[in-house]
Amino acid sequence: MNSLVKADIRKLGIAAVLFAAIYGMLETEIIGAFWELNLVLIMINIILATSLNMINGYTGQFSIGHAGFFAIGAYMGAIMTVKLGYDMPVALIVGTISAGIVGFLVGLPTLRLNGDYLAIATLGLGEIIRICILNIEYVGGASGLMGIPRLTTFPMAFWIMVAILFFIKNFKNSAYGRACLAIRENEIAADTMGIDTTRYKVMAFTLGASFAGTAGVLFSHYFFIAHPASFTFMRSFDILTMVVLGGLGSMTGSVTGAIVLTFISAALSDFPEWRMLIYSVAMIVLMLYRPQGLFGDKELSLQMIRSLKMGGKKNDD
Amino acid sequence: MKSWKKVVGAVCMTTLVAASFTGCGKSGSKSGGGNTIKVGALFELTGNVANYGTSTLNGFKMAIDEVNAKGGVNGKKIELVQADNKSEPSESGNAATKLVTQDKVVAVVGPATSGSVAAAEPILTANKKPLIAPCATAPAITLNKDGKVKPYVFRACFIDPYQGKIMAEFASKDLKLKKVAILNDSSSDYSKGLAEVFEKTFKENGGEIVAKEAFLSKDVDFKAALTKLKAANPDALYIPGYYEEVSKIIKQAREVGLNVPLLGSDGWDSPKLVEIAGKENTNKCYFTSAYTAQDKDAGVQKFIKSYKDKYSKDPDVFALQGYNAGLVLFHAMEEAKSTDGTKVAEALAKTKDLQVANGKFSYDEKHNPITTALILELKDGVQTLVKKING
């Protein structure tokens, strides 16, 4: 058994312990329904942020249409359960795959653009998806798809999140992931080295889009409704904010960003007037003092903490 | 220099985290007081429909102050717990969960928009607490998929089809119109629902719909659609929608030479409409509403006066509906002699001929109110009451 697999098993063990701890607190009602809801919301946001990080962070393609894929997952999943009467696993698979297909079809032409142009194209895409949904009577149009059963549970959200995090972590360390990183660092150099840049860009984009679809299915089956107002470009920006806050290119950063922002929003719910203000001030301060995000493109790991203790030796892992 | 930056950054982050923890602690430590009844207000306080939410909340707050001044409900004062849903349905579910499970409210008033109500309602129903949506007009929110009424969901405004019907009746019987064209907002269910019922009723009364065009909310140029409609040569134009777009439509309709009467819905009810469209352009404009400041009814005038005293501005229809929702809820609590959710919901369903700000208020079997509706005309920008339809 090689050391990588061992490390993975250890991480899985940590996840299991964490799960047991939280689940225990939920069962004994130390954590009430409100924080349970926000825990599930944190899981969903972690999936969204880490999947966007695959596109924006690893591959360096500036996409801001993530809410669109999120919406496709939410609606496709809801159609499966509400309209066609399938179970949650079917909804999850269909939601994931359909968002992936749209991501692939859209990625092929748009990823030939770069920088600002790609950002505008993806922003437009997100809006197109939302406006399409708005005009499809089958899914309720502007009033949204109502009457979705609450099929998402905390264990389901947690383990799907863990599976996706493992996938993304291993993707980064694979040959595919290295190719993506190469594209981010210098596309022309990567191309010269024989990397099929379009292929890898589309691959990262498709994978990111399908995970957003998974998050969408979990989302609509937790909040009883899929409504176009939940998938505006503000949602895309929210996800992007989480990624940038944590640090573009850092998966643990995206996770932290998602946790911190969701938590702040929930904790400040008693002061609705102050919520947006504090949120904005936090962003400005962060961008002033740490423009690369909390973690930059570094990953938080046990090793890093250990090396900090040993006297701040620089560690790139 | 670098370490200085680090220190400032660290201090900011610590403050932020500390702030969020105090928020957490505060919401956790709240427990049900003995001498007050906690009532939740779940509204769109931020986000793109925040103006509706805050108006409705103001009206509701006024109802609470009045009932508290009279000694409260069943000898207990009403305590308001506010929550914001950021104008987004899923946040509505989040806020409803907080109100019910953390703040332990006995009932919730709000949210303002139908989508948000649909997201909050399952949580209230699961916890057996009544919800009154003051101005959510979609028919589906009080009904289950099988057509059965949801026992804990009520509203305080008339539903969309009712408005469309009244305007169609008015157009064919009072204005004696034969050919009407429709211009509706295809991104709004409210607008589409009204257009549908208007068309149906108007045709039943022997009228003809000569043309139909649609726009999207946030559009600014409507001349292409208006020119097309003008070519159909209608006697009038029905434009159900919100004032942001409608005000521009009115202005541009007059500019392209469409000088026929324009008919609309309660989304028109805003001083901004006249401001943007221009006084002279709003002549021959009629719309349905639940309320106007021109109504000489004593109850309405009293409501306007107290609202002005409290907030030093004119109330709108949302404020009135928020106020009415409060009155209806407190009345039901008194009738039920309890704050138990199931009993209050039962009492709510039995509400009959209750005196609210703008007339009598009863619930039908689908938890929709039977209450006063008005047809208003704009004359040089001033609302004039043309017709009053009592339930």
Q: How does this model look, in words?
A:
The complex is a heterodimer of chains A (317) and B (391). Chain A is built from 13 helices and no strands. Chain A is mostly helical and 317 residues long. Chain A has two domains: 27 residues; 278 residues, Orthogonal Bundle (ABC transporter involved in vitamin B12 uptake, BtuC), CATH 1.10.3470. Chain B is α/β, with parallel strands linked by helices. Chain B has two domains: 197 residues, Response regulator (Rossmann fold); 130 residues, Rossmann fold. Chain B contains twelve helices and 15 strands. In chain B, strands 7-6-8-9-10-14-15 form a seven-stranded mixed β-sheet, with helices on both faces. A five-stranded parallel β-sheet of chain B has the order 2-1-3-4-5. Chain B has a three-stranded antiparallel β-sheet with strand order 11-12-13, covered by helices on one side. In chain B, helix 3 runs parallel beside helix 4. The longest helix of chain B has 28 residues. About 4% of the residues of chain B have low confidence. Chains A and B meet through helix 2, helix 11 and helix 12 of A and helix 1, strand 2, helix 3, helix 4 and helix 6 of B.
Named CATH topology of the largest domain in chain B: Rossmann fold
- Please trace the helix and strand order of chain A, writing H or E for each element: HHHHHHHHHHHHH
How is the CATH topology of the largest domain in chain A named? ABC transporter involved in vitamin B12 uptake, BtuC
Which two protein chains have the largest interface (Cβ within 8 Å of the partner's Cβ), and how many residues from each? A-B, 41 and 47 residues
Strand portion of chain A, in percent?
under 5%
Q: Would you count the extended β strands of chain A for me?
A: 0
Distance between the amino and carboxyl termini of chain A: 21 Å
Radius of gyration of chain B from the CA trace?
23 Å
Quaternary arrangement of the chains shown? heterodimer
Task: Count every helix of chain B, treating DSSP H or I runs of 4 or more residues as helices.
Answer: 12
Residue-averaged pLDDT of chain A: 89
Radius of gyration of CA atoms of chain A, rounded to a whole number: 19 Å
- Highest CATH level, the class of the largest domain in chain B: Alpha Beta
Strand order of the largest sheet of chain B: 7-6-8-9-10-14-15
**Relative helix content of chain B:** 40-55%
Helical proportion of chain A, percent range: over 70%
Structural domain tally of chain B: 2
Low-pLDDT runs of 5+ residues of chain B are 19-32
